[in-house]
């Protein structure tokens, strides 16, 4: 998996000019699923995301996690995180999981984060989405299999 986490003041996702998900303070998560990913790997990412202390405490130190700040989550499927740009100028997505597997793991992540946090919004898997956000910081973290 590859994940881009953006700490936001607000974020929303639109499909055909209709808002299908929006959050206030929390995390916008762009989630890419790779061909070798499993539910066990997804569990490690979910745990890391939920426990990651990236919100400021009363002293301005990043010591607080999502639950500490009653943060919300918006998860958007993003297969393009698996772009391989080493050859030529057209990205290759050969390491991204196929649609069936990617959707299964994307939905698995959504269900499991919801069970642990409550308010979790989602994009439309495979949809033509327009994502907007107000980045808080900006504070952006990238996770992939080498970093968790």
- Please give the number of β-strands: 8
| Overall helicity | 10-25%
Rg is 15 Å
Q: What is the arithmetic mean of pLDDT? A: 95
- Domain count: the total is 1
CATH topology: D-tyrosyl-trna(Tyr) Deacylase, Chain: A
The CATH superfamily appears as D-tyrosyl-tRNA(Tyr) deacylase
Explain what the structure shows.
- The structure is a single chain.
- The protein has two helices and eight strands; from the N terminus they run E-E-E-H-E-E-E-H-E-E.
- The chain is globular.
- The protein has a single domain (about 1-140), classed as D-tyrosyl-tRNA(Tyr) deacylase (D-tyrosyl-trna(Tyr) Deacylase, Chain: A).
- A hairpin with a 5-residue loop joins strand 4 and strand 5 (about 60-65).
- The strands form two sheets. Strands 1, 2, 3, 6, 7 and 8 form a six-stranded mixed beta sheet that branches. Strands 4-5 form a two-stranded antiparallel ribbon.
- It starts with a strand and ends with a strand.
- It is an alpha/beta fold and about 150 residues long.
- The longest helix has 19 residues, at about 100-115.
- Helix 1 (about 40-50) packs parallel to helix 2 (about 100-115).
Structural key phrases:
single chain; 148 residues; alpha/beta; D-tyrosyl-trna(Tyr) Deacylase, Chain: A; six-stranded mixed β-sheet; two-stranded antiparallel sheet; 2 helices; globular
């Amino acid at each position: 998996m590859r994940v881009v986490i953006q700490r936001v003041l607000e974020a929303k996702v639109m499909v055909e000019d209709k808002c299908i998900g929006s959050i206030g303070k929390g995390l916008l998560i762009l989630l890419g699923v790779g061909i070798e990913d499993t539910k066990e790997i997804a569990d490690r990412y979910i745990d890391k995301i939920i426990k990651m202390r990236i919100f400021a405490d009363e002293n301005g130190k990043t010591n607080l996690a999502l639950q500490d700040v009653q943060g919300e989550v918006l998860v958007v499927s993003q297969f393009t995180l698996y772009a391989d740009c080493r050859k030529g100028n057209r990205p290759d997505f050969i390491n991204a999981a196929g649609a069936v597997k990617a959707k299964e793991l994307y939905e698995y992540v959504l269900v499991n984060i919801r069970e642990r946090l409550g308010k979790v919004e989602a994009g439309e898997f495979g949809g033509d989405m327009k994502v907007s956000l107000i980045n808080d910081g900006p504070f952006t973290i990238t996770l992939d299999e080498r970093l968790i």
